[in-house]
Each structure stands twice: as C-alpha cells, then as structure tokens.
C-alpha cells in the first residue's frame, strides 16, 4: 500500500509549532512540539526520559486519548487533518503491555483479531491472511502453542511479535509501537527492530516507535530519531547527523560511546522531588542547558527541512485514505460468535474455571440440605415454617449470586483491557 507522509502539525493560536496537553489542570509534558514528518518506508524512533510523555504522544498520534489529557494540536496525513477516529482507521497501535489471552494459541489469537477487524473478508480470506501473517512474523513454528502467561508458554520475543502481527492484519498505513523492546535482551531487541525495518521497507509502512536505551547499532539503524527533553524536541533528523548537531553546541559524543546514552545523559535533569536544596543551582544550570539545546534545534536545518517538506503535500493522499478507511466494523453477530468461541476455549483449556463453580454448587447444596433437612413440606404450614422456607430461598439465591459474581470478576480482570483495546 502506498502510504503518504504522516505528519503532526499543530494549531495553538496560529502558531504552527506548539502542542500543549494539559493534565490535571497543570501544564502537561509537551510545552513545545514542532511538526514531525515521517515518510512511508521510514522508521522514526522517539527517545526521552522515563515519564517524559513518549507514551502519551504515541497514544495521541494513534487516536487514543488518555482520560484527563487535553491536547491542543492537529495531526495530518499528508495535508489532510485527521480526527482521532480517522487516525484509528489508518494506524495500528502496539501498546507497551502485550494484550494477549493465555488460554489461546498463537493462531487462534490472530484468527479472532482478523475476524473482528476484517469484516468485509470471507473466512477463507481471513485464514489466508492469518497464515501469511504467521509466516511474515516468523510465528509459524509456534502457531499451535498456547500463549500462556509471561515466563510460561511462548517467549517474550514471540509475544511481542504476536502483538505486532495482530496490528498488521488490517494492513495499516502507519504502525505506532510503544517500547517494543521493553524487557527484551539485546539479541531479541535487535531482531524486533530489524523486523520493523523490514516491514517499513517492503510494505512501505510508516513506523513510529518509542525506545529506551537502544544499542549503538540500533540507534544508527533507524531512518530518523527524535530526542525529547522537558517536553521539547532537542533533535529530530537522521541519526548519523545527530553528533554533528551536538558537536556544534560543544557536546561531541566520545569515541566508542553509545550515542543514545550520551545524549540522554546531557539532556537529563532532576525533578523537584529528586533535587535537594543544595542541588538547586545545579538543577537550574541543567535546565538552562537543555533549553539552550532545544532552542538551537529550532533554527537547525532539520527543523527547516521538516517545515519545507510539510508544505509540499502529495496528490496521492486521498486515494490512500479512501482505501484505508474501507475497513468496516464487524457485525454484532460476528462479534458475538467470535467472543463466545473465545470464551468456550477458556472453559475447555482452564477446567478449573467451571470445576470450581461446580464444586461450589455441590457444596452449598449439601450445606443447605443439612441445615434445613427437618423442614416440614406439608400443607399445614405455620408462620415459622414460612420464614424457614424464605431463609432457604434467600440463602440459595445469595450463594448463587456470589458464585456467578466471583467467576465474572476473574474473567473481567483478565479480558477487560483487551476488550477495551478491541473497541
């Protein structure tokens, strides 16, 4: 699919370079964010401090809004403004937490996701797409393996590839990944990034990822990198030009040093909670240093290039959007059939889910029988007998109500995050 430029542009009182989310009534993590341009076939890596707003930014770009977060700005696909629903239609979003059900196999998970997302496809087409996706993401050998819980079932790298595969079923033009290498060793992280680079190149996808402490090889493998500091962009451009920019400011990266670690150490500042009274002067110096670097980037040639490319537009944009927006939501019948099938698999593969309920029913039946075994069931009921029967019925209803509620809560806790994400 020929995707077009995926750009973020902003509109804050006429200024084209500011996005200002507000969280809880206080200024949010982004005090100033310039336009971001990523072309089809490119992978943009976003680096920044923990808690610096990378996940919030990616959620916003993908059309997901965190409750209580207000955003002033727009996202464009080419030169067309995109609403949150529009962005959900063209973006695949892979959250940091893998939303997988442990009692499904790899193939069953992909089949359920494809059935829900590809409403206009027949079951044969869905099966063909699932089979192709398993091959592309190197999951064919574990297609019949149970996903299991972390540490059990498939490996961590396979879990992450499965999450990526599920988002690629609908062939989104833009793929947004939040910390795809989180918790992975260096080898697994390299394989994941290489897979994303291959997807971007062969499928002409626009891919945006946030990443924490990439190795030197991974850092230079990205098409573009964006380094964030204090809600602003300190650098946005090609990774091999990054050192040249920082060198002009007097911060050259030492030889044989991981560039991402070095740049993050320069741009890191202590928060008010971390800094003691004796560190206040040092903290102020760090803040001024970061502000100076971010200000320098505003006049850097990379910023000018982003603004120049943003104005060019592209005539193929509208065909791409119309094609991508062609995906329809699955019918109620199709959704119900998929969810019921998924639940029956849970009962089949986790027999304790219904064996415990059956045991509870038998236990309460025995207790009630022993308690009220001498209850008279004749026509000459008196007032006391009526209250005794009411007590039996009340205890029976109460016991069954708690039993049903307890089983529902266990399923709710496991599946509700995935249910929300599938909406």
Structure explained in plain terms:
With 423 residues, the protein is of the alpha/beta class. The protein folds into two domains: 6-324, 3-Layer(aba) Sandwich (Rossmann fold), CATH 3.40.50.300; 351-422. Helix content is 49%, strand content 12%. It contains 15 helices and 13 strands. The protein has a six-stranded mixed beta sheet with strand order 9-10-11-5-12-13, sandwiched between helices. It has a four-stranded antiparallel beta sheet with strand order 4-1-7-8. The chain has a three-stranded antiparallel beta sheet with strand order 3-2-6, with no helix packed on it. A hairpin with a 2-residue loop joins β12 (224-229) and β13. The longest helix is centred in the last third of the chain and has 40 residues, at 383-422. The radius of gyration is 27 Å and the shape is elongated. Mean pLDDT is 77; it is low at 8-29 and 314-326. Residues 1-15 have a biased composition (Polar residues).
In brief:
This protein is of the alpha/beta class and 423 residues long. The chain is built from 15 helices and 13 strands.
